[in-house]
Prior knowledge:
This protein has 142 residues and is mainly beta. It has one helix at residues 2-22; strands spanning 40-45, 49-52, 57-67, 82-90, 93-100, 108-111, 114-121, 135-141.
Amino acid sequence: MKSKLKSKGLIALWIILILSVNSCRNNEQVINSNYLRVNDTTCIWQGVSYKNLSENISLKLDSVPNDSRCPVGAMCIWQGNAVAAFTFTKGNVKHSFTLNTITAFRTDTILENYYIKLVKLSQPDIYSDKRYTYIATVLISK
């Protein structure tokens, strides 16, 4: 009986994961293809480096050191903010920076003549565990 419940739980988890990944798809973009789009949005999984070889650039969501947003499914009286830490590389030059989810703080930056904006940062629901992987939707343009 327990193994059936565990199997159903794993299936439900996969369905939720697939649905959340599909919400981050953008036309022909395939999630986790590690291709960094320029002049368009790209969904970046935490810990994965996304590259654009023709531009010789890469972007990685290193961590989310602070997330005070109201969890999905909870009722809160504040908006909250999340801080996302990134590494942007052009050639051999690396830049570490942070972007925020609310406009009261920095939500965009310009590095090496590239405009980088945090469009969206996924957040865990109140039932998820601490191993949750964030997904940042970023816009990079020249």
